[in-house]
Design a protein that fits this description.
By secondary structure, this protein is of the alpha/beta class. It is built from eight helices and nine strands.
Length: 217
Amino acid sequence: MGTHGYDISAYQRGISFDILKNSARFLILRGGYTTNGGRRKRCTDQYFNTFYNEAKKYNIPVGVYYYSCAQNYQEGKEDAVYLYNNVLKGRQFEYPIYIDVEDQWMLKAGKTGCTNAVHGFCQYLESKGYYTGFYAGYYVLYNQMFPEPLKRYTWWCPWWNKSTTPPKKISTIPNMHIWQHSGGGCHVAGYDIDGDYSYVDFPSVIKKAGLNGYGKV
């Protein structure tokens, strides 16, 4: 069994961190998102600052995800630039920074577009000193992206069931480091939220490497 945590966004506005701290060993916060459709716009999650400050107050390690609609390398990079300037810069994170690959606007770009968007996002943030990865379902990764070139990034995989261990189909894949086991199935402080298991001691890895806002010691 891995380390248990949750991912939250403005949809969980008002959740009590005084209660959340009792079961959250880490949190992945939505840092921002892109609206889909013809007139796409990048936005910061309205509750990111509140959640980040609360997590730090209660010493809960945090990571970030960006809900993307990028369809190519340049748009993936632009998502990362936006996230860096508006969310990441000047802060410290103990878990990776992810691009979320699930929106249909993004997926319709095809395997090449989606895969290149992940590269654009991750490579830019790596150049800024961040540990990066992507969120994508098993089917999405193996049918709507090219998985081989993405093995260099950490993978956060949703596969919802009631077990405390991930399905063999994903547990044997080396870069599957966080498993989202529940989509809104965890009942905490009066909210239904997503539950996750991490199989890597990211805080130690990231701090030792001096990444995500932590200078090398």
